[in-house]
Amino acid sequence: MMRTMMRSLVLVALFGTVVAAPTGNAQEVPEFRVIVHPDNATSYLTVGRLSELFLKRSTRWEDGTPVLPVDQRMNAPVREVFSKAVFGRSTSAMVAHWQQQIFSGRGVPPPELESERAVVEYVATRPGAVAYVSRNAPLSGVKSVEVAP
Fold first, then answer.
1. What is the SS3 assignment for 112?
2. Quick check: 73 pLDDT over 80?
3. Phi/psi of residue 137, each to 5°?
4. Residue 139 in contact with residue 52, Cβ under 8 Å?
5. How does residue 145 score in pLDDT terms, banded at 50, 70 and 90?
6. Which residue ranges make up each domain of the chain?
7. CB atoms near residue 139 (< 10 Å)
8. In the chain, which ranges are E strands?
9. What DSSP line would sit under 69-82, residue for residue?
10. Residue range 31-148, CATH number
11. How many angstroms separate the Cα of 101 from the Cα of each of 39, 63, 84, 91?
12. In 3-state terms, what secondary structure has residue 128?
């Protein structure tokens, strides 16, 4: 039970801070947003499901469309936040994971794009795409989905 509480606290700390909304209600402001193609029927993803998608352990959406995860560039601050929130590991630890996967012939990492604009364009033009962007990134032609612990 203590471990579950600690994980929840870590997720709240990584996803954002609690702020007062104009109505007086408190709401969480995430440090990143998860985006999918607008035709994707998904409206929310759990952290566990995101992990499966980005580790390529789950390769199809519920409708059978192939999943196409895409990463931010290696030194993007949002990538570090995403890696810690979803995998519980740093970006460099995830790079090491993928190096082992490549060496053993078990897989390759998601493609890495150089800018948030490129990530948004990738997702907007590929029905199976899933990605993450900073909370202030301009979104055009994509759908933002809720992330649940």
1. strand
2. yes
3. -65, 135
4. no
5. very high
6. 31-148
7. 14
8. 16-20, 26-30, 32-36, 44-46, 68-69, 71-72, 112-113, 129-134, 143-148
9. E-EEPTT-HHHHHH
10. 3.40.190.10
11. 31, 27, 19, 15
12. coil
Instruction: Taking residues 103-121, report their average pLDDT.
Output: 97
> What's the whole-model pTM score?
0.80
Question: In one letter, which amino acid is 100?
Answer: Q
The residues facing 36 across adjacent strands are: 130, 143
Tokens for 132? Answer: 């993450």
pLDDT of residue 104: 96
**Cβ contact 22:125 at 8 Å:** no
What is the model's pLDDT at position 5? 40
Question: How many Cβ atoms from other residues are within 10 Å of residue 104's Cβ?
Answer: 8
Contact of 129 with 123, CB cutoff 8 Å? yes
